[in-house]
Write a structure and sequence with these properties.
By secondary structure, the protein is an alpha/beta fold. It is built from 14 helices and twelve strands. The strands form two sheets. The protein has a seven-stranded mixed beta sheet with strand order 9-8-7-6-10-11-12, sandwiched between helices. Strands 1-2-4-3-5 form a five-stranded mixed beta sheet. Bound molecules: nicotinamide-adenine-dinucleotide.
Length: about 425
C-alpha cells in the first residue's frame, strides 16, 4: 500500500493521534481538525509586456484562539490550498509549543517567481495585499516570508497595507528588511533554534556533540546556517551536505565557507573540488550521529526509515518524515526533534519583531539570542518531559503539549 502524502491529511492524522491519546472531547477535536477561516483570491496583474495574467492566492487562518494568526506566505507554481492548510495547522501547533501568544496561519500564491521580473513581483505582492489586506493586521494575522518570498516582498506588502491604512504599520508583517523594522537575528533564527534544541537533546541523551558527525539535506537558509551554527555553537563535524543537485561528502568534515562560496558561485554545492559525491537518498542513510533534513517534505518514508542510522534527527524542514516512518524511527530508537519544535526559531524571532514594532524600540543581537534560547530550551524540555511521562515519540509529545494549550484557549473563550 502506498502512503498517503497529502500534507493536510497528514496534519489531520497527526492531530487525530494526539486527540485520541488526550481523550479530547469530540466537538473540540472536530473543531481543531479544520481551519477557522480561508480567503481565496483572484489577482489580475499587468505583466511587463502589457499582457494581463490572473493569479490565484490563498490565506488560511487556521486557529487564532491564543493570539493573532501567524505564518509565512509562499510564491510557488505548485502551491495548493491543502499545502497551505497543512502549514497553517502546523503553525498553530508551533506557536503553541514554543508558548508565544500567537495562532497559526499561512498564505500562498500560485505563481513562478523565477520567471517574473521584480516589477511584476511587486505588482503581484501589492495585488495580494489589496485583497488579503481586509483580513490581516498586527492584531489579527501577521504574514512573513516563506518559500520564494523574501524581505523585499515583505517590504512592498507592508507598504501597500500601510497605504490602505493611511499610516505606517510595520507590525502587519515580519521578516522585513532591518531598515523597515525587521529584527536583528532573523536570518539565522530557524537554524539557531534547531541547534539550541540539539544542544538540549545532547544533554538529555548524555551524548557529547563535540566532534559528532552530521549530514544536512538542503543548503538554503536553514541548511547553510545549520552547518555554520552546528560547528560554531556545538562543535559538530558536518561531513555531508546536499541541495537539489545532489550531495557532497568528506570524512574529515566540510569547510562551511568553502561550501557556501562554491554554492554562491555555481548555484550548487556539488562539484566542490576533492569531495565525494552522493545522492540525496544516500545522504539520509549515512552512518552519522546527527541527520538534519532541511529541504523538503516526505523524504524519510516507510521505505527508507529503517535504514536511517543517525542517532538524532533534527527536522528543520517542515514535514520531512511521514507518519509510517515516524513509527519505524521510534522503534529503532532514533531521537527525532520534530519539525514544529526544531524549526520554531524563525517564528519566535518573528514574534520578537512584532513586539519591537509595537514598542517602536529595537533590540540588539544579544537580546534576541537570549530570548530565543530561553523559548527554545523551555519548549524542548516541555516536549521531552511529555514524551518521557507518557512514553510516546517526540512528535506525539509535541502535539500533546501544543494541543492542550490551544484547546485550553478555545475552551476559555467559550468557542467549544
Ligand atoms: P531555501 O529555499 O533557502 O533552501 C532550500 C534548499 O533545499 C536549497 O538548497 C535547495 O537546493 C534544496 N533542495 C531543493 N530540492 C531538494 C531536493 N530534492 N533534495 C535536496 N535538497 C533540495 O529554503 P529554506 O528557507 O532553507 O527552507 C528549507 C525547509 O525549512 C523548508 O521545509 C521550510 O519550510 C523549512 N523552514 C524554513 C524556515 C526559515 O526560516 N527559512 C522556517 C521554518 C521552516
Amino acid at each position: 500500500m502506498t502512503e498517503e502524502l497529502n500534507p493536510f491529511e497528514i496534519a489531520q492524522r497527526q492531530l487525530d493521534e494526539a486527540a485520541e491519546f488526550l481523550g479530547l472531547e469530540p466537538g473540540m477535536h472536530a473543531f481543531l481538525r479544520e481551519p477557522m477561516r480561508e480567503l481565496h483570491v483572484t489577482l489580475p496583474v499587468r505583466m511587463d509586456d502589457g499582457s494581463l495574467q490572473v493569479f490565484k492566492g490563498f490565506r488560511v487562518q487556521y486557529n487564532d484562539a491564543r493570539g493573532p494568526a501567524k505564518g509565512g506566505l509562499r510564491f510557488h507554481p505548485n502551491e495548493t490550498i491543502d499545502t497551505v492548510r497543512a502549514l497553517a495547522a502546523w503553525m498553530t501547533w508551533k506557536t503553541a509549543v514554543v508558548d508565544i501568544p500567537l495562532g497559526g496561519g499561512k498564505g500562498g500564491v500560485v505563481c513562478n517567481p523565477k520567471e517574473m521580473s521584480q516589477r511584476e513581483l511587486e505588482r503581484l505582492s501589492r495585488a495580494y495585499i489589496r485583497q488579503v489586506g481586509r483580513i490581516i493586521g498586527p492584531k489579527s494575522d501577521v504574514p512573513a516570508p516563506d518559500v520564494y518570498t523574501n524581505p523585499q516582498i515583505m517590504a512592498w506588502m507592508m507598504d501597500e497595507y500601510s497605504a490602505l491604512q493611511g499610516h505606517s504599520e510595520p507590525g502587519v508583517i515580519t521578516g522585513k528588511p532591518l531598515a523597515l523594522g525587521g529584527s536583528a537575528g532573523r536570518m539565522d533564527a530557524t537554524a539557531r533554534g534547531g541547534m539550541y534544541c540539539l544542544r538540549e537533546a545532547g544533554k538529555v541523551l548524555g551524548m557529547d556533540l563535540k566532534g559528532a558527525t552530521a549530514a544536512i539535506q538542503g543548503y538554503g537558509n536553514a541548511g547553510y546556517y545549520a552547518q555554520l551554527l552546528g560547528e560554531e555553537l556545538l562543535g559538530l563535524n558536518v561531513v555531508c551536505v546536499s541541495d537539489s543537485q545532489g550531495g557532497i561528502f568528506c570524512e574529515d568534515g566540510l569547510e562551511c565557507q568553502d561550501v557556501k562560496g562554491h554554492k554562491d558561485e555555481t548555484g550548487t554545492c556539488v562539484g566542490l573540488p576533492d569531495m565525494e559525491t552522493l545522492s540525496n537518498e544516500e545522504l539520509l542513510e549515512l552512518d552519522v550521529d546527527v541527520l538534519v533534513p532541511a529541504a523538503l517534505e516526505n523524504v524519510i518514508t516507510a521505505e527508507n526509515a529503517g535504514r536511517v542510522k543517525a542517532k538524532i534527527v533534527v527536522e528543520l524542514a517542515n514535514g520531512p518524515t511521514t507518519p509510517e516512518a515516524d513509527e519505524i524511527l521510534r522503534k529503532n530508537g532514533v531521537y527525532v526533534i520534530p519539525d514544529f519544535l526544531a524549526n520554531a526559531g524563525g517564528v519566535v524571532v518573528s514574534y520578537f519583531e512584532g513586539v519591537q514594532n509595537a514598542y517602536n524600540y529595537y533590540w540588539d543581537l544579544e537580546q534576541v539570542y537570549e530570548g530565543l534560547d530561553s523559548k527554545m530550551t523551555a519548549a524542548f524540555h516541555a516536549v521531552h518531559q511529555m514524551a518521557q511521562a507518557k512514553k510516546v515519540h517526540n512528535r506525539l509529545a509535541a502535539y500533546l503539549v501544543a494541543v492542550v494549550r490551544v484547546a485550553g484557549a478555545v475552551k476559555l473563550r467559550g468557542w467549544v
